[in-house]
UniProtKB/TrEMBL annotation:
<keyword id="KW-0238">DNA-binding</keyword>
<dbReference type="InterPro" id="IPR044068">
    <property type="entry name" value="CB"/>
</dbReference>
<keyword id="KW-0233">DNA recombination</keyword>
<keyword id="KW-0229">DNA integration</keyword>
<dbReference type="Pfam" id="PF00589">
    <property type="entry name" value="Phage_integrase"/>
</dbReference>
<dbReference type="InterPro" id="IPR002104">
    <property type="entry name" value="Integrase_catalytic"/>
</dbReference>
<dbReference type="GO" id="GO:0006310">
    <property type="term" value="P:DNA recombination"/>
</dbReference>
<dbReference type="Pfam" id="PF22022">
    <property type="entry name" value="Phage_int_M"/>
</dbReference>
<feature type="domain" description="Core-binding (CB)">
    <location>
        <begin position="98"/>
        <end position="179"/>
    </location>
</feature>
<protein>
    <submittedName>
        <fullName>Integrase</fullName>
    </submittedName>
</protein>
<dbReference type="InterPro" id="IPR013762">
    <property type="entry name" value="Integrase-like_cat_sf"/>
</dbReference>
<feature type="domain" description="Tyr recombinase">
    <location>
        <begin position="203"/>
        <end position="386"/>
    </location>
</feature>
<dbReference type="InterPro" id="IPR053876">
    <property type="entry name" value="Phage_int_M"/>
</dbReference>
<dbReference type="InterPro" id="IPR010998">
    <property type="entry name" value="Integrase_recombinase_N"/>
</dbReference>
<dbReference type="InterPro" id="IPR011010">
    <property type="entry name" value="DNA_brk_join_enz"/>
</dbReference>
<dbReference type="InterPro" id="IPR025166">
    <property type="entry name" value="Integrase_DNA_bind_dom"/>
</dbReference>
<dbReference type="InterPro" id="IPR038488">
    <property type="entry name" value="Integrase_DNA-bd_sf"/>
</dbReference>
Length: 403
């Protein structure tokens, strides 16, 4: 007699597993712990076999009968439903493993160890926020230029044109990796060249007028927030490293006796050791800060979790408290400030570029020349700090050009 929904729902477990038969080979297996499994008994190639059809109540009686009927159709065509199910699972796993997200994460895992942490974080966040939700589960080989463009348009339409261009570039890198690993035939992103309007070049807001710089230095000196943040504000214009490099500074990298900070290559954008000569003013600030944070790992530890560096927004937030809007100055703007004035005052351009740790076209040369122009850079950094002190006190300093 065929089963009913009521009979299935009310079936109670017993000391040993038991079966409730439906018809045409379908039955419900009830374990002693109360779990209920649908099974289909059939014969293929002269052997009796069982096919799992799901778990009750996730799979209802009607659904179990439909799955049984599908299996019987396969048998009628001389196809083993058990083998068919395993092949389908394998195909689904292969499709999932070849999805854009799976390939993208594989590409990221392979290449991110060679990037600066901040750079890698931006890429994976961009993919997770703007790309994966829309095309992540699609087989990468089936994604067309039209589908990719629709995804990029979503970013463009919210006004983030530069992000759209960067996402386009990252997607192209993932597609090329898929081609190299045999998961795709070509990179469809190349068909989208010119599809997005060009992004306007953005420059980090900065202050380069000497009088305004003097006002800024006095404002920093009068900062009344956290002592750690105040020290970061004081060092930012003196050292003009990238904001991420400053906030992730570790005491083990700093030698106050030698007046030197050596940033390991893995922290740098170009993966090359970077030497930052410390002017006397910077050493003074760091010695004061060492009394507070020197027992920990980071020079600028986070407020909530000292085991991690301060937030990437700390310096910018402090500048806002001082009254400088995001269109006037950012933490990155201290680099533009130093670059502009050092060049205007006639310092060696190569020494300036090396101190800014700008990209060296020849990576081999860069690896061996991280100390290039170091004596001149030491002198430049000290005279730059003295110049800023002069502006802060209102002194009339016309030049600090190297002789």
């Amino acid at each position: 007699m065929p089963l009913t929904d009521t009979a299935v729902r009310n079936a109670k477990p017993e000391a040993k597993p038991r079966k409730l038969a439906d018809e045409k080979g379908l039955f419900l297996l009830i374990h002693s712990n109360g779990s209920k499994y649908w099974r289909f008994k059939y014969r293929f190639g002269g052997k009796e076999k069982l096919l799992s059809l799901g778990v009750y109540p996730d799979v209802s009686l009607a659904q179990a009968r439909q799955r049984r009927d599908d299996a019987r159709k396969l048998l009628a065509n001389e196809v083993d439903p058990g083998v068919f199910k395993q092949e389908a699972k394998r195909a689904n796993r292969e499709i999932a493993g070849n999805s854009f997200e799976a390939v993208g994460r594989e590409w990221y895992a392979k290449h991110s160890p060679n990037w600066a942490a901040s750079h890698g974080d931006k890429i994976i966040r961009r993919l997770e926020r703007d790309i994966f939700p829309w095309i992540g589960n699609r087989p990468i080989a089936e994604i067309t230029a039209h589908v990719l463009l629709a995804t990029l348009r979503r970013i463009e339409n919210r006004g983030a044109l530069e992000t759209a261009h960067r996402a386009h570039q990252n997607c192209s890198q993932v597609f090329r990796y898929a081609v190299a690993t045999g998961r795709a035939e070509r990179d469809p992103s190349v068909d989208l060249r010119g599809a997005l309007p060009p992004a306007k070049e953005k420059h980090h807001p900065s202050i380069t007028d000497p009088m305004a710089i003097g006002e800024l230095m006095r404002a920093v000196e009068g900062y009344r927030g956290s002592f750690v943040t105040r020290c970061a504000l004081q060092l930012a214009p003196l050292l003009f490293v990238r904001p991420g490099e400053l906030r992730r500074a570790e005491w083990s990298e700093v030698d106050l006796d030698k007046s030197e900070w050596r940033i390991p290559g893995e922290k740098m954008k170009m993966k090359v050791v970077h030497i930052v000569p410390l002017c006397s003013q910077a050493v003074t600030v760091l010695r004061e800060l060492h009394a507070l944070t020197g027992q920990g790992k980071y020079v600028f530890p986070g407020v909530r979790t000292p085991s991690r560096p301060m937030s990437e927004n700390t310096v910018n937030s402090a500048l806002r408290r001082l009254g400088y809007g995001k269109e006037e100055l950012t933490g990155h703007g201290f680099r533009s400030m130093a670059s502009t004035l050092l060049n205007e005052h006639g310092w060696n351009r190569d020494a300036i570029e090396r101190q800014l740790a700008h990209a060296e076209r020849d990576s081999v040369r860069a690896a061996y020349n991280y100390a290039e122009h170091l004596p001149e850079r030491r002198k430049m950094m000290q005279e730059w700090a003295d110049y800023l002190d002069g502006l802060k006190t209102g002194a009339k300093i016309l030049t600090f050009k190297s002789n």
